[in-house]
Amino acid sequence: MATSAWQSRRSTQLAKAIGPPKNALPETAISAAARSTARKSVSLVRPKRRKREYLAVRASGESFREWVERNLEESYGGYLFDISMAVLGVFMVIFYLVINWNGFVKKNLGWVQDVDFYLNLIFTAEFLLRLYAAHDRLDYMRNPFHFAELLVLLPSWFDFITKVRDGVIPDNAIVEAISGLRPARILRLYRFLEFTTSSLQRQIVAAMLIVVSITISTAGILQVIEDCKTPCLTSPRACGCQSLSMLDYLYFVVVSIATLGYGDITPVSETGKVLIAFIILLTFIVVPIQVNRIAQVISSHTDYSSSYREAKQHPHIILTGYIDADFLTVFFHEFFHPGNLNWNEKVVILNTQPPSVSLKKVLNTVDSKVKYLVGSPMLDEDLNRAVLQDARACYVLVNRNTTRPQYADQCTALITIALRRGNPTCPIYAQVINAQNAPTILRMGATDVVVHGLMKASIMARSCEVFGLTTVIMNLISQPYTELDERQSPIQWQKPYVHGYVHSFYIVDIPRTFSGLTFGDLIRFLYDRTPVIPIGMLTEDGVQLVDMEFKLGATADPNLCCKVYAIAKSMDAVEDVAQVPPEQVLSYRKNMRRKARSAMDLLNEEQMAAERKKIKPALGNEVEKIRQNTINTYTIATASTVLPDDYTFEYEEFATVGVPTSVARHIVVCGFPLDTYQFLKTIREAPPVDDETDSPAVVFLSTSLIDEDEFARIRVFPNIYFVQGSPVHFPDLRRTRLELATSVLILTRAKESTFSDRNMVDADAITTLRYIVEITQRTRMPNVVIELERPSNVKLLSSLANDRRTSTSYTLPTIVSRQLSYRSARRGSGRRDSTPWVPVDAMGDLGTSPIVLEEFVAAGRVYMDVILDSLLSESYRKAWIAPFINVLVNSRPDDPLQRRLFQVEAPDELISLQYGDCFRKLLDVTGCICIGLWRPERGVILPHPCVFVNPPPDLQVEPGDLFYLVGKPFTFGDAQAWWAK
C-alpha cells in the first residue's frame, strides 16, 4: 500500500517538477490547442531540480496522529522507513541463526545482548508508532501479523529485565515459551509483501514466506524446547532432551513437512512431539490454500497484464488504438521482413481488450517478437508498462469499418495527445478516416498520418482511368520476397511481372559527389549503372516531384547531396549508390555540361537559378517544417466549394432521373465510396486520357441513396448520376448503360458482423463481378476494379476469369483499343495456371506473395486495404512515404504543373523498341519518368492484362501498351505530335 501510494505521489511530484505539459489541451478550440501542442512538444526544456520532500506538510485542521499516519503511508520518508524496517528484520533473523547455528545459546555474550536489545528497541518504537497512528487501534491489534509482531518483541525485553534486575522474572514454562518465540522474528519478513507490484507476485511471495517462516520458526522453537538445561549423561530419549545444531533442526522440519520421515532425527520431548504434529497439520492446511490461491491468480492473471521488460536488450515500437487481425497480418509481414534491418526490434501491442481468436492465430506466428498487453493508452500506468519513454515509434490505429468515423478520429486524436505527453520525441504514425481531421491530429503531435478515406478514394478513382494502378502501388509499397525473382517460371508473362514485383520504394541518400547534376541527369546516370530510378525528392516543403532541369546543389551535410524517393530492387541496390566511384560521376558531369551548352535554348541559367531558390533539398531532420507543410497540404486538399443551401430540387432530381441515353464512356460505381467527395474530386481533377474526351460521367448503382448532407458536398461536380437498385440484378445493371462504360468499380459494403464466416464478407462483390462477366460474354469487358475485404478471396476472381475464357461463345478480338480491355480465349481446358510455381518457402507465414500472381492482381483489377496497411507500416523506416504516395496519386495542390502518376498509350515511334530505350526517349522528350507499363491480353501468350513495373530493359514494347509516367501529364495526341516534330 505504501509502495503504490509512493509511486503515485512520485509521479505527481515529477509532473510538478517538469511543469505543465507542453501539449496539454486548454479549454479553447481543439485546432488552436493542437497547433501549439505540436510546436511545443518537440523541445522539452529540462527544469531545475527541486529539493525532495521526505515528509508531507501538515494540512490545516489535520491532527498530529492523522499527519503521522499519512506520512507513514504516503510520504517518501515513510517509503524509506518501510524499506529500513524490512532490511533490519532480515538482519535480525540472520543474526539469530548465526548465533545459534551450532547449538542453542542459553546465555549470550554482552555485545550480542546489546545488539539484540537495540534492534528490539527500534522495532518496539516502530510498533508503538504504528499503533499510535492507526485509525482503529483495536482493529490494528486484531490483525494476526500485528499481534505476532508484539509477541516477538517480548523475548528481548524479558532478557533485558532479567539482566538489569535478576530474579524479577521467574523461570517457569510460560517464560520459557515466550523466550522460545524469538525465532518467530522471521515473520517480520512479511513486510516485503508491501513491495510487490502485482497480485500474482504477491501470492507467490506470500507462499514462499509462509514456507520459510514455518521452517525457520519451527526449527528455532524446537531447538529451544529440545535443548537440555543440564548436560545429558545418558541417551537423549532417556533424558527427554537433545542439543542439536540449527542445520539439523532445519533438515528435520523440512523432512517432516514433506512427510518423508527418514527417522534419523526425531523430537524426544513431549512438547516437541506435540509441536511438530501441530506444524505438520498446519502445513497440510496452509500450504494447499496458498497453492490454490496461486493457481487461481494464474488462471485469472494472464501475461497480458504484465509489463515489457526487454526495452534495454530489444528496442520496441508500440501499436495501440483499434487492433485488427487483418492489419497485424500485413504489419508483421512488413515489419519482420527478412530484408529489413530492424531484426532486433520487437512490437508491443497495447489494447483495451484481450486478443480474440483471430488475433491469437496471428500472434502465435510471431510469439517471440511481440508482447501483447491489456491496457488503455489513456492511462499513464499502462503506458509505463509498455515503456513508452523508450519506444522507437508509436502507431495509432483506427477502426476503418466504423459507422462513426468522426468519433473514431476523435479517439485517435486523444491517444495521440496521450502518447505525445509520455514521449515528446518519439515518432507517432496515426491512421485517420476523414481528411478534414488530418491537420488537427498532426498539430496534436502526430509525426505523419495515413488518411484512409482520402487515400482509398483517390486510388480507386485514379484506377478507373489509370489501368492497373492498384497493383503498381501495392507492389511498390509492400516488401517483396526476392526469392520469387530467382525461380524459373514456365509461364512467359510471369518473368517480367515478377521482375517488377520485387521492386519497392526506398529513400536513397544521394552522395555529395552528384552535386552539379540535374535531376534528369541523376535519373539517367543511376538507371544506366544501378537498378535505381529516382522519382521524387524530400525538400523543406515536403515531398516534391521536381523538374528534370532542377540542379542538385550542396547541403549542410558534408556527405549528402539530397534524399530522393526511388524505385529499387533491394537495399543492396540502394547501398550501391553510395559506392559509385567519384571518377564516374565527374566524367558523366563533364559530358552533360557539354550537352547543356548546346541546349541552352530550352532553359537558361537564370531560370535554373530561380528553380534552385524555390526548392531546398532536405536531409530528413527538418521534421517541423515538413510536418507544417503536410498540414497545409491536407488543409488545402480538403477545402470544398460552398454552394447555396437550396438544393432540395437537385437532390430529388438526382434520386429519380437516372442515366440519360446520351451517357457513354462513363464510370459505373457499384455502391458509394467511404469518401464520395474525394472520389469525385480525384476524377474531376485528373488529366484527360486523350484530347477528345473530357472528364467521364460517373454513375452510382446502389440499393440506398446517400443522405442530403453528403449530396450537398458532391453537387458541385457535373455529370453525376444515380440508379437505385442492386448490382446483382440484371435489369438494374443494364440501367447503368454498362455496355458503354469504360470502367466499373465494385465496392464491398457488407460488414463482417453479418456473416458467421468473416471470409464471406466479399460475397456481394464477387457475385456482382460474376454478373458483369455474364453480361459482357458476347461483347467486351470494361476495365473492372473490385474491392475485396479479404485478400484470400482473390483466387475466386481468377476462377471467374477462367470460366469466361472457356466460354464457347467468346471469340478473340481483332483489335486492341486504348479505352477498352479485351479478353482472349484460351485453348484447352480452364486450368488455373496463374500460380502453379509459387514457392511456398519464400512466402513466409505472413507473406502476401501467393496472391500477387493471381491474374486479377497481376492485371491491376483488385483493390485491397493491404495497400494502406503496408503504407502505414512502412512509415517507420521510410520517412514521409505517405505524403509521397499522396503526391504521386493526387499531385501537390501548390504545383502549377500538377505533376503526378499518369498513363499514356505507347506512341507509334516507340513500338517494337526495347523498354530501356523507351525509358530514355520518354525522359529526354517529355521530361517524364517511366516506371513501367500495362499490357493488354495477348491470347494464349498473355491470357489477361498484366502490370509490369520497371520491366527488364530488353522487354519489347508492343502495340496497345500503356506507359506509367511520373511528371506533367500529357495525352497520346501530344506524344504523337512531339515525335512527329
UniProtKB/TrEMBL annotation:
The chain crosses the membrane at residues 79-97, 117-133, 204-225, 245-262, 274-291. Residues 1-22 are annotated as: Disordered. It is a multi-pass membrane protein. It comes from the Eukaryota. It catalyses: K(+)(in) = K(+)(out). GO terms for cellular component: plasma membrane. The keyword Ion transport applies. Residues 314-451 form the RCK N-terminal domain. Residues 1-14 have a biased composition (Polar residues). Its main location: membrane. PROSITE patterns: RCK_N. The keyword Nucleotide-binding does not apply. Keywords: Ion channel, Ion transport, Membrane, Potassium, Potassium channel, Potassium transport, Transmembrane, Transmembrane helix, Transport. One of its GO terms (molecular function) is potassium channel activity. It is found in: Cell membrane. This is RCK N-terminal domain-containing protein. It comes from Pythium insidiosum (Pythiosis disease agent).
